[in-house]
Design brief:
Chains A, B: Pfam families: Aldedh. Chains A, B: Keywords: Amino-acid biosynthesis, Cytoplasm, NADP, Oxidoreductase, Proline biosynthesis. Chains A, B: Its EC number is 1.2.1.41. 2 copies of one chain form a homodimer. Chain A has about 425 residues and is α/β, with parallel strands linked by helices. Chain A has 2 domains: about 1-225 and about 395-415, Aldehyde Dehydrogenase, Chain A, domain 1; about 235-375, Aldehyde Dehydrogenase, Chain A, domain 2. Helix content of chain A is about 45%, strand content about 20%. The first copy, chain A, has helices at about 1-25, 30-45, 45-65, 70-75, 80-95, 130-145, 155-170, 190-195, 210-220, 245-255, 270-285, 295-300, 310-315, 330-340, 355-360, and strands at about 100-105, 110-120, 120-125, 145-150, 180-185, 205-210, 235, 265-270, 290-295, 305, 320-325, 345-350, 365-370, 390, 400, 405-420. Chain A is globular and about 70 Å long. The N and C termini of chain A lie far apart (about 55 Å). Strand 13 (about 365-370) of chain A pairs parallel with strand 16 (about 405-420) of chain B.
């Protein structure tokens, strides 16, 4: 009985979202921007209320013994709240992605054809620890004219509830109905699963988090999914790579923020380069506490490395471990990436333009780098404005997804009695 | 044991397709076009071989007592073969959708960013009776640099096998590896189901056929799906609709080709218009053998009509039956469409521009018509070139899908040592 009621609740919320989304979709850009500024101000004014809710989550997290990286993702500070609030203002400054005329022509029979960008409708956002996603995703959804259903991780439930409470109060002072933002106030796994199949009410699901969350959604949802972010990224250092550049990029791509999806997990090194730069490479790795798990060729050169197994090649470490493979040809690197890569970001360091072009053409991934760090795969860093996630799928949107990824199109045909 | 072997066969074919697709993806536009012209010529030269295989399917179909419309979809003639062969030449004439630079910019740090269209990879096409889909889909796939796995309906197996045999022989004279075109030579349902979950080898599934086929694929596939074509389309005749225009469009949209997805299934009539034009409407319906299933208001005006039930509103007739509802306001029509429409094509007939704009803004569908027939929702009719299907989903592609829908993008970043 409890489950039945809860199912009805989630479905009722989805229906509310759809209805409110229709009102939102008819609002002007100015009305939407005004609402975003209002939201930003409210979140800043009520930062203490949000922080005290966050403290409950942190307390529970400490009791559960979550690791440091996890606690860091969960933790809010006044500065973090002001950062995500300000993110709403930045979204307000971006172009409205809806109402754009993408095509306009008149057929020989006089029928006028136009293709116009419109909101998707209702977005289901399923995410993990970070409470800032609650605000980031809401801002992008509202700006693009979409309602949003938020299902955050159970460890952040108090923070998320407080943030949504502030946003709901704040939306009452705007033209956007507060029902456009629905919060699944439950730590129950079944409530997310209910979202998976609500094809009638939800237009797209966006899972954002670790690989097991994304796998669960992709495998079980009949609602279309925008798959984000598992990044088993590789850096290939070619025989003709500049030594200093290769080491600088390796260090940045591995250590700048090891826990994010655009960090590298494996370095593939050409044997000729390795012979020449072994001492510097080992020095760089040791100095920066990077632990190597290598193939046999690696171990022959770096005896302190552990022997890599299948898991080392296949999984994201998200920490200062790195897998290392030695190859004799760029094609071996390409084959390894094809086998283990997640089509996120892959890089080659080489001074040889032809080798780089060969790599770019043959590697199948959202983002490919020649002589630059994979860390740039990010809507902000690439100058695309805010992002709702990084797509590792091929349909609809690939790579960093901004406002445009939250729209679809309508073909509008105007005639004066045309028949076929 | 048998099933195990068959699974291996389908998987082996998918792996072959992926490998061959990589070779195809590197070919020039000229090489791909040359192959399409070669295929067209071969199919025309071997039309008798194809016709004799088709005769076996027709014979089996007659024995199974398939209805006339089904047999018509299955039947090939010399003319039909020449039509689909010529379709390949038309595809050759279209722009290559791959290798297009969709964005190109240099960031402040000097990193050059470009976004380039590339093939999806491997397309799984699951379809029903029409053997022409075998050729149409192959042509679009090859032109866009994709390998294709063809799983046609069991009733057309002999025709499809013969067509693929001719195409395979013909591809040996071109640079496109024949392994880019894989034919699942089985009438076994399980072989299509095996395609549903091969996420590693297949990039997209395109089901094309009746609603039960599409439903099966959408509900069970973990491979991304491009959903096509169930069209429960409506025509709304407003109080301010021109009488003659409304009747002309009603007739065309219902009777021109009742079995296709862009034909209308329901007419929604404003009561004021009905009062004025009742005699002409009844005359038109009777003269053209259109059977009406109406709501109570309809029955009050047209006593010969049958009473419509839930099925009449929800399902495609695909024949000369039509459902009819009488309303007092355009919003009632919009609500009905929202409840029963499949987001394919919806039309309004009115002389009032504001009412039309209201309808266009609020109805959620791929194609919306003001004073024109829904029959124009078709890549050819709208001048978009060939189409692989009409998308009724919102992600990736909506409405008629041409070559562009078979591509994705790569971001290519070129630097000189940039790090974050």
């Amino acid at each position: 009985m409890y489950l039945l009621n809860q199912k009805s609740t989630v479905e009722a919320q989805a229906i509310q979202a759809k209805k409110a989304g229709k009102v939102l979709s008819l609002l002007s850009t100015e009305d939407k921007n005004h609402a975003l500024y209002t939201l930003a101000q409210s979140l800043e004014m009520e930062f203490e209320f949000i922080l005290s809710a966050n403290e409950k989550d942190l307390q529970a997290g400490r009791e559960k013994g979550f690791n440091e990286a996890y606690m860091d993702r969960l933790a809010l500070t006044k500065m973090r709240i002001f950062e995500f609030s300000d993110g709403l203002r930045q979204v307000a400054e971006l172009d409205d992605p809806t109402g754009k005329i993408l095509l306009s022509k008149t057929l020989e029979n006089g029928l006028e054809v136009s293709k116009i960008s419109v909101p998707l409708g209702v977005i289901g956002m399923i995410y993990e620890a970070r409470p800032n996603v609650t605000v980031d995703a809401t801002g992008l959804a509202l700006k693009s004219g979409n309602a949003i259903i938020l299902k955050g991780g159970s460890s952040a439930i108090n923070s998320n509830r407080a943030i949504v409470e502030v946003m709901h109060r704040s939306l009452s002072d705007t033209k956007i109905p507060k029902e456009t933002v629905q919060f699944i106030d439950s730590t129950n796994r079944e409530t997310s699963q209910q979202l998976f199949t609500m094809r009638e009410h939800i237009d797209v699901l966006i899972p954002r988090g670790g690989s097991s969350l994304i796998h669960e959604v992709v495998s079980n949802a009949s609602v279309p999914v925008l798959e984000t972010g598992v990044g088993n990224c590789h850096l290939y250092i070619d025989s003709e790579a500049d030594g200093a550049m290769a080491l600088k990029i390796l260090l940045n791509a591995k250590t700048d923020r090891p826990a994010v999806c655009n960090a590298i997990e494996t370095v593939i090194v050409h044997q000729d380069w390795l012979k020449k730069h072994k001492t510097d490479l080992i020095h760089t790795l040791v100095q920066n506490n990077i632990n190597v798990h290598g193939d046999e060729h690696t171990l022959a050169e770096i005896p302190s490395a552990a022997l890599a197994d299948e898991q080392d090649w296949a999984n994201e470490y998200l920490n200062l471990n790195i897998a290392m493979k030695v190859v004799q040809h760029v094609d071996e690197a390409i084959e390894h990436i094809e086998c283990y890569g997640t089509k996120h970001s892959e890089a080659i360091i080489t001074e040889n333009g032809e080798t780089a072009a060969h790599f770019m053409q043959r590697v199948d991934a959202a983002a490919l780098y020649h002589n630059a760090s994979t860390r740039f795969t990010d809507g902000g860093a690439l100058g695309f404005g805010a992002e709702i996630g990084i797509s590792t799928q091929k349909l609809h949107a690939r790579g960093p997804m901004g406002l445009e990824a939250l729209t679809t199109v309508k073909y509008i045909m105007t005639g004066n009695g045309q028949i076929r």
